[in-house]
Amino acid sequence: MRITISGPPGSGKTTACRRLSEELGLEAVVFGQLFRRMAADRGLSLIELGELAEVDPSIDAAIDLEILEVARANPDIILESRLSAHLLSRNAIPAFKIYLDADPEVRM
């Protein structure tokens, strides 16, 4: 079963993803890991890549494409990112979708 975990920053997505991965024995793909790898591949810091992504839409497009490729290739996986549920829905890839939220005071 594909599972997506979405929500705002600091809502517990990564923690929930890791725990669910351990409990179900499914591989987990965390957006932050993809972003860190992309920064390292380009010789950039996370801040530098984030600033570049604000002006270069190809950064987001590459991440979206990788998430979609992973989802298509793995019927049993957990995908954690703010937009994973939307991406999969938009591309007719079935998944169980989880949305986590928390008050801004808790997410700090």
The CATH superfamily label reads: P-loop containing nucleotide triphosphate hydrolases
- Distance, first to last CA: 32 Å
CATH second-level architecture: 3-Layer(aba) Sandwich
Radius of gyration based on Cα positions: 14 Å
Rounded mean pLDDT is 92
Order of helices and strands: EHEHHHEHEH
Alpha-beta classification: alpha/beta
User: Looking at CATH, which topology would you report?
Assistant: Rossmann fold
What is the quaternary state of this protein? single chain
Widest beta sheet: strand line-up: 2-3-1-4
What's the CATH class label? Alpha Beta
Taken from the alpha-carbon principal axes, the silhouette is globular
**Helical amount among residues, as a percent range?**
55-70%
Number of helices: 6
Number of strands: 4
* Strand coverage percent: 15-25%
How many separate structural domains?
Answer: 1
Low-confidence stretches: none
Sheet of most strands: 4 strands, parallel
